[in-house]
Amino acid sequence: MFERLRRLRRTPGLRRLFAETSLSPADLIYPLFVSESATEPEPIESMPGQFRLPLSSIALAACEAEQAGIGALLLFGLPSSKDDRAGRASRADGIVQTAIRRAKDACPELVVATDVCVCSYTSHGHCGLLRGSEVDNDATLEVLAETAVSHAEAGADIVAPSSMMDGQVRAIRRRLDEVGLRQTAVMGYSAKFASAYYGPFREAADSQPEFGDRASYQHDPSNRRHARREILADVAEGADILMVKPGLAYLDIVREAREATDLPLAAYNVSGEYSMVIAAAERGWLDERRIVLETLLAFRRAGADLIITYHAKEASRWLNDS
Q1: Structural domains in the chain?
Q2: Around Cβ 154, how many Cβ atoms within 10 Å?
Q3: Among 59, 123, 222, 244, whose Cα sits 20 to 30 Å from the Cα of 68?
Q4: Under a CB-based contact definition with an 8 Å cutoff, are residues 118 and 168 in contact?
Q5: Sign for the pseudo-dihedral over CA of 130, 132, 133, 135
Q6: pLDDT in the model for residue 44
Q7: Predicted pLDDT of residue 219
């Protein structure tokens, strides 16, 4: 005698009935690039279908996401000028701060998250302030905290520090609490690896380092235990949500995070993962819809509650049509 396991997957109805993992538009977070200098949507060459949006497009983009049932937006800002101290990152009238207000004015119930980093605001392109040729961890914490507060004051529901500075979650949580913004949630980029999968993002966010790389502050791709320590550090520092980035090549870390804590967990389906799928689909080498939904389901199966993905609009349409 052998088990008749095929009985429970014999028909579409049975497969739906016994599906162990679900995926819905509400599980998705849609990243948007907002440019202070753009006057119309600017195509991102290495990410077909994605754009640097002018402020005039934000209200429409936000409401389209809400109507599609997408869970949240994640805003990245491209300022019109940069300096070595990231002076425009925390301005009340900065690009992200203004975009938050426009999104919230148009769709008050839409959840808006913001990336809190300085790489797009510094003339040198690193994710922290420099002391000589080294990234100064503790000096950067002050800028990150000020920036997070400015985002929260503009109406952000979630602030997400991605600089990978030690103590960034604690610094932001403390400052938010000190100024009475206790309801603003913090999503830690808890396990963000120094990855080649970020290549297209560098073009999109104009954030390529002027010299060196980010290996001194982002995780070594070879390290799993060290990533777990970082995850647990973010928990201890007061993170409300955790994140693993990239997602597809780091599903073991997603599972590690899921087993380490019960906090909500996000996986970032990053730019390189997006661009590879689009390039192959354009050549007819794979079925874009099937592979995107399969990939997003894999993140959920590994333990992610939320998925940050550039496929959010298309995936939401496919899920709503199914």
Answers
A1: 20-213+221-321 (3.20.20.70)
A2: 21
A3: 244
A4: no
A5: negative
A6: 95
A7: 86
Tokens at 305, concatenated:
């509650």
At a CB cut-off of 8 Å and minimum separation 6, what does 16 contact?
none
**Cα–Cα distance for residue pair 50/311, rounded to 1 Å:** 9
**Positions marked catalytic:** 192, 245
Supply angle C-alpha 7, 13, 16, rounded to 5.
Answer: 90
Type of residue found at 59:
A
**b/e per residue, 62-82, with b = 16+ CB within 10 A?**
beebbebebbbbbbbbbbeeb
CA distance 313 to 264: 22
Tokens representing residue 60 in the block: 């429409």
In terms of pLDDT, which residue wins out, 291 or 202?
A: 291
Distance, CA of 63 to CA of 26 (rounded, Å): 14
**Averaged over 261-266, what is the pLDDT?**
98
pTM beyond 0.90: the answer is yes
Residue 17: Cβ within 10 Å count: 10
Q: Of all helices (H) and strands (E), which one includes residue 307?
A: strand 306-309
DSSP letter assigned to residue 54: P
SS3 at position 103: helix
Cα angle 282-286-290, degrees, rounded to a multiple of 5:
110
pLDDT at 205 (0 to 100): 77
Give helix 168-178 / helix 225-237 axis angle, nearest 10°: 10
